[in-house]
Amino acid sequence: IPWEMKIKEVESHFGSSVASYFIFLRWMYGVNLVLFGLIFGLVIIPEILMGASYGSIPRKIVPRAEQPTAMDFSVLWDFEGYIKHSALFYGYYNNQRTIGWLKYRLPMAYFMVGVVGVYGYSLMVVIRSMARNAHEDTGDGDEANFTFSWKMFTSWDYLIGNPETADNKFASITTSFKESIVDEQESNKDENIHLRRFLRVLANVLITCCLCGSGYLIYFVVKRSQTFSKMQNIGWYERNEVEIVMSLLGMFCPPLFETIAALEDYHPRIGLKWQLGRIFALFLGNLYTFLLALMDDVKEKLTEEGVIRNITHWTYFTYHNVTAGNGSAVTPPPMDPADVPRGPCWETTVGIEFVRLTVSDILVTFVTILVGDFLRACFVRFVNYCWCWDLEAGFPSYSEFDISGNVLGLIFNQGMIWMGSFYAPGLVGINVLRLLTSMYYQSWAVMSSNVPHERVFKASKSNNFYMGLLLLILFLSVLPVAYTIMSLPPSFDCGPFSGKKKMYDVIQETIKNDFPPLVAKIIGYLANPGLIITAILLMVLAIYYLNAVAEAYQHANAELKKKMLMVYFVFYPVGLQIKVH
After folding, report:
1. Which of 65, 209, 291, 565 sits in a 20 to 30 Å window from 331, CA-based?
2. Is residue 28, in this structure, part of any structural domain at all?
């Protein structure tokens, strides 16, 4: 199992709650590896091998005016120049119905992989993982009785022969005792219920104000960036203001939420879920505010597109007439692709924004770990000898591993990948590299720079909670992509769907030209809205029925456990008496 010993080492020193993050990271890496295989094998490689070569058509060459600076670092860092006109983005792909000697249907493959492959596979694997986790949770025995006795007399593994493994097991048993002690203390805690309710309401009001302010700030900077994009010679900050502000909000808001959450005094496990939900609301609100502002920019570009389309046709017409009028040739030579006026390829613009957000998130995460964890730990460790107070026991001390922030960072990043992969097929490859390096980088950081939480707690059912958030953001990631596919016209001179009124027209075109008339008629009947609505209603009723059956089974299971426990307490003393006699 990949990285199993590394994760076990983290779990033995920091508890199952921290280890659950690395298990989740490993699972995400596997999912993204499959998605990258689908996109790379069925979209990128066929276009590179069988599609038109670079420079042969306008969409596959840098415009003449941009060529002198197309390889500058500042241009490439903004994903412009040669990177913008590469297979990394939507605009590079040609709209030929078939390519190569295999007659490969690239537009259809792009649509099916980008929509059905990415979202269908992700939905299937998330639901399957949730079902497996639920099955494992119900399969565990009742650990509420004789907890400390079970841990004391049955925790050690007598087959251990390696000293390092023995040390990890010893640390793991110690950590499990700390987890159980926290659970026992929470179950016996007395509190002033009225004061606690007031503090929790106050904390939620403060966090709601933070969320609203964050959304307004994102909308403001996105609208301002659209003004900057129309200006010449703007600075580095103006070009990257949106990414910087979103990264800073993601860096500073979670610690602020955690400070406010101290007023609520929840059980650490419940507090973690509240913290996850709030950070999820922060990230999701920021992302959707960013998308709404970006859609306004897309609509402006669609308005400009009609003008550019007319200019392009007029340029072709003028060029051909002038060339023919010179008498040089009856058929004028073709115009150089680099000189053809381009329309605003809004799909590539959206893809670039998602790639920028992903790369800036990677850099901010890695720099935060390096400065906030490693350099802080070095300062506390070596300066403590000559400081006027104990840095390890007091301020700033060593940092704890931020479970909620890191988990939500993964989920938020995956949501950006799901939204942006349709417009930037290479985005999944960037995410695969990010997850691979994160496993090694963060496991090194947590073992070298962090200390265990003061209140170590079990990660009971946390994995399923993570999956629930991931399923929610998967559903919310489908909505903007479905909106653009069903409602917005594709750019007229870039991408595999150029020349069509809507992107989904590629399906109708394929059914009409490649399927027998009978099959096309059957598919047309299946696409009837009345049939689709009926099927959705049946699915909802089936889900409701299965959920009711599952709840009934859980109730019966709990009752059987109670009866078995009663039988045990009744007959066990009798058995002891018989044995003694």
Report:
1. 65
2. yes
